[in-house]
Amino acid sequence: MINAVANWKLNGSASFCHDWFDEFNENFHGDRSAVAIAPPAIYIPLCNELKQSNLNICAQNLDFSNETARTGEISLEMLTDMNCSMSIIGHSERRNIFGETSETIKNKLDKVARHTFTSIYCIGESLAEYDSGKSLEAIKNQLDNELLALNTNIKLYIAYEPIWAIGSGKLPSTQEIESMHGFIKETLSLSAKIKLLGIFYGGSVSEENSQELSKSELIDGVLVGGASLNGKSFAKIASSFDKV
Ligand code: PGA
Q: Which of 54, 86, 122, 180 would be a feasible disulfide site paired with 118, CB 3.0-4.6 Å?
């Protein structure tokens, strides 16, 4: 089971990848099969070469269509061809900057469900929804219109990422995260088609807070942006969740 995922977003270069793996390898001594790195897609082959272990390489996004007139996209088949069998789906930056709708995200989940591919499906409420006490409603809407709208069986990880916590240095309390994770588990338990592999928390996870998050039975792992760009910091975060 995976429990620590690095989302490099639009960061990195060939030399960054080399330095990152040097630092991570020096500082992480746990189970590499429980760790995943999501570099920009163009660096997936290089990261696969550098990882020298069973650490997982994850895409940040994929296309769902079987059409080929789709300039700029990368298909699940292409990722598989490059030894990558995992992708983040529905990150709030894809939703908010690139206009991905619930329909698009549902189609991506559907595509993944029909292949031997693992997804880390991201959901989370906005600050306005959080402030007006509508977090549960927002999450329920996303689940209803995306994951629960599928007609296929699916095994997946979910990352609960409140949008207001991403890159802001602000986190919900552990109790708030736990109650949301409990709500997600309960909502999905009603569907026989969904097999939840784990629920991650994402949003301002750092070396400083990962230990506390890892103590919760309801937090199976973390999706880390900013703090994952430093191989040593991410090694420390992943070590907090290491079960070896
Ligand atoms: P952050 O990003 O750790 O920088 O808040 C998390 C994410 O966007 O997945």
A: 86
Q: Which domain holds residue 200?
A: 4-241
**Ligand 1 centroid vs 226 CA: distance in angstroms?**
6
Domain count, the chain: 1
Question: Which of the residues 91, 93, 129, 181 is marked catalytic?
Answer: 91
Instruction: Tell me, yes or no, if the pTM score tops 0.70.
Output: yes
- Which residues are 57's β-sheet partners? 37
**Is 7 a pocket residue for ligand 1 (Cβ < 6 Å)?**
yes
39-74 residue pLDDT tens: 999 999 999 999 989 999 999 999 999 999 999 999
Q: What is the DSSP letter of 53?
A: S
12: phi > 0 → left, psi -120 to 50 → alpha, else beta; which?
Answer: left
Is ligand 1 within 6 A of the CB of residue 129? no
Q: CA–CA separation, 1 vs 72, rounded Å?
A: 32
Residue 109 near residue 121, CB atoms below 8 Å: yes
